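Predict the holo structure. Ligand: adenosine-5'-triphosphate.
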Amino acid sequence: MSGKSNRAAALGKIGMGLIALVVLLALIGPLAVPYDAKERSGGPLEAPSAAHWLGTNDIGQDILAELVSGARVSLTVGIVGAVCVMLIGAAIGIVAGYFGGWIDALMMRLVDVMMTLPFLPLMIVIGVFLKPSIATQIMIISLVMWAKVARELRSQIMSLRSRGSVQAARSMGATNGYIMRRHVLPGVFPLLIPQFVQGVNAAIMMESSLSFLGLGDPLAKSWGSMLFYANARSAFLTEAWLWWVLPPGICIIIVVLGCTFVGYWLEEKANPRLSAYAAAPARKKRADRTLYARLSERGMDNRAEAPVLTVERLQVTFPKDGGIVRAVKDFNLIVRPGEIVGIVGESGSGKTTIGAAIMQLLKPPARVEGSIRLKGLDLAELSAEQLRRLRGNRIALIPQAAMNALNPVLNIRMQMLEAIKLHRPMKPAEANRRIDELLAEVGLSAHWGAAFPHELSGGMKQRVIIAMALLNEPEFIVADEPTTGLDVKVQVEIVRLLERLQRQYGIAMIFISHDLPLVMRIADRMIILNGGEAVEQGATAELRKYPNHPYTRKLLEAVPQIGPAREPATTV
Ligand SMILES: Nc1ncnc2c1ncn2[C@@H]1O[C@H](COP(=O)(O)OP(=O)(O)OP(=O)(O)O)[C@@H](O)[C@H]1O
């Protein structure tokens, strides 16, 4: 967990402690009969005598009782006020953001008007007009605060509405009610909680201000009304302020600080990207050090480094119709640290078979010959248990069809938790933090962890698969057609994401695809495969400029437009 998240959690605990203190005060409130300052003579307030504090003088009540009673009023107005604000603001924000068009235009103009109205005169006019009471205070608080909530939620809903999964659900004939329930509301719900806490905070402040202005219920003792009476009876001018101004002031500060800390913590929890982004530079630095800084320190490029993966004379055959299919013929491959090697070839050329052979996933009757070494470790010699420990841990696969790779009956977080548990014992809290961090890395907010695969668009599922592949920080990744079935825009997003993460973590990777332009975007080196045979290989830029083999030339000619090739990793 990042330092920032630690800080947020610590502040959250302090905040909850402060709020618990005030709630305790509010709970014992009924036991304390408030001292009725109104009944006292209209003269200046005094500092209480010792007898007063001991409850032995004729007033018979003390400031403490008033403070305790005030906690009830302030909390009630704060919570009820915030509930009203959230209900009005959320209803208007969600409807405007979801339906858009003229409904949105109309509602947002109303929001604009509300936000430009001068707050203080409005409060005084309404308060005087409706007569001071708790109900009036709640009404003023709701009226003044809903517009901000509506505006923030509207923008969230607009971004959720445009997500691929919502579009897909709509294209499958899902009703507005279904989309709202399954896609939109689950997306905004985590944001409502921190907003509510902040709302309570603001409402308590506003209640104090209203009461201080004399717009509070004259019969209900609140901290604000204590300040009102303190002001009205000159306590601010005498030493009595210490007793009549400081205690309610401190109570207000305690509850406001408590809500602010809890709100901050909840916001971090609802949006782990806030902390993930803060943590990102440290992570990058570490990856840079392991890969690029290390290389420049030695004055060597990565071609001089020991390969992460070495494949020598790989042959794969399948029995078919009494004969055999030679799916891979005499294939050689070297992948060095931090390198992406693209394997390109048309359908049936043997790409997936090579990936499966590297992952040791081919079973008889498939026949595999040759050697596959991960940092010198001969994978063919490992036992089934050793291989199990290796897969998903030191080497990971990003499979072709993300839709089939995810378990439809488990939510994303459960699947990611299982992937971690398979390889390393981790406390649930730590594992969950790792999951949130990885989801944020692939551009998904933490609440998607609770989603089931069918709730995710193809691109989102592929992001989840990428996050799962990275969970245990593998040294090597086989990305087998990781963009199949995705539209062109999402394909580019996924490739950029893979490239960023690969650079960030310094992982070696093979990127398998039939899509030559896509491979050229990401790969440092490429291998052109035809009929199970590597017909040509070389640095991407070289191969593009000077293709030797007729098949490579044919493939290049078939590409209408090619984007700039990725610079080799060695030039960094
Ligand atoms: N389990 C199997 N049994 C028999 N033949 C197989 C098997 N798996 C693959 N092959 C054959 O091996 C050859 C290479 O298949 P492979 O799936 O590796 O190609 P590919 O380049 O990945 O194709 P695509 O891009 O369509 O996935 C094909 O001729 C295929 O028919």
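The chain has two domains: 71-258, 304-571. The domain at 304-571 is CATH 3.40.50.300 (Rossmann fold).
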